[in-house]
Write a structure and sequence with these properties.
Length: 57
């Protein structure tokens, strides 16, 4: 899991502005990657919620 920050701001389809990407890579079986838009000021609680929503949903 890595947070890519300091990107130019962009507007998502939901109307929010994003300036960072949360990248989650499965180094095990699938070798897949998931990229989730977020903001540089996201808290640990926000990152945890993104992880649970996009990985376990």
């Amino acid at each position: 899991m890595d947070l890519i920050t300091d990107l130019p701001p962009s507007k998502g389809t939901d109307g929010h502005r994003y300036d960072a990407i949360l990248s989650i890579v499965d180094h095990g079986l699938t070798k897949g990657a998931i990229f989730i838009p977020t903001t540089k000021t996201s808290t640990t609680n926000n990152i945890t919620q993104l992880f649970l929503t996009h990985i376990y949903a």
